[in-house]
Write a structure and sequence with these properties.
single chain, 175 residues, alpha+beta, 5-stranded mixed sheet, two-stranded antiparallel sheet, elongated, binds zinc ion
């Protein structure tokens, strides 16, 4: 419930849209700071909604005249370690190029034809949706602390806590 409320409140702010081909042809650039709370699909994965990341999106054309968007993302988020289930800090670093193509040339592309991914050139490209997608693709599927950095060894925590009441009971009986 709490998360939903934050999300809806944030939606009241303008989310940037760009005409992607126009943006690329004119070599335009935008940059901003985004709260994780504005990214509903990311929130499903993050350990908590706190924090933000900064991004820069710059348009351009390569030697072949193909329009592209260069995306850089920088930030720090919290994931849940899949071994100990505790929070782990994870650095968000993205530096990627996306080619802009129409549907026909997207369909004509093979899977591994190019060094960079291509997306559909959109007259109303939702910048935050695209950033969210790229960040999701970059996150590890099963994040884990480095071996030795996990805060709990398997089973130890649960047993340690269970033993305490019995120890107290044993003392009482002796008295
Ligand atoms: Zn861990």
């Amino acid at each position: 419930m709490g998360r939903r409320k934050i999300y809806h409140a944030r939606l009241m702010y303008a989310r940037p849209f760009i005409d992607s081909l126009d943006f690329a042809r004119n070599g335009r650039e935008i940059s901003d700071e985004v709260q994780f709370a504005e990214m509903p699909r990311l929130l499903d994965i993050l350990e908590n909604p706190q924090g933000s990341f900064s991004y820069t999106m710059q348009g351009g054309k390569d030697n072949q005249g193909t329009s592209f968007l260069d995306i850089r993302v920088n930030g720090q988020c919290s994931l849940r370690c899949q071994r100990c289930l505790n929070k782990m800090s994870y650095p968000l670093r993205l530096d990627t190029r996306l080619f802009l193509r129409d549907q026909a040339s997207l369909d004509a592309l093979g899977d591994d034809d190019e060094e960079f991914d291509s997306i559909l050139a959109d007259k109303q490209l939702n910048v935050l949706d695209l950033l969210e997608e790229e960040i999701l693709l970059s996150l590890p599927i099963a994040p884990k602390h480095e071996l030795g950095a996990c805060q709990v060894t398997v089973g130890e925590n649960a047993h340690g806590q269970e033993k305490k009441p019995f120890a107290a009971l044993a003392k009482m009986k002796r008295n």
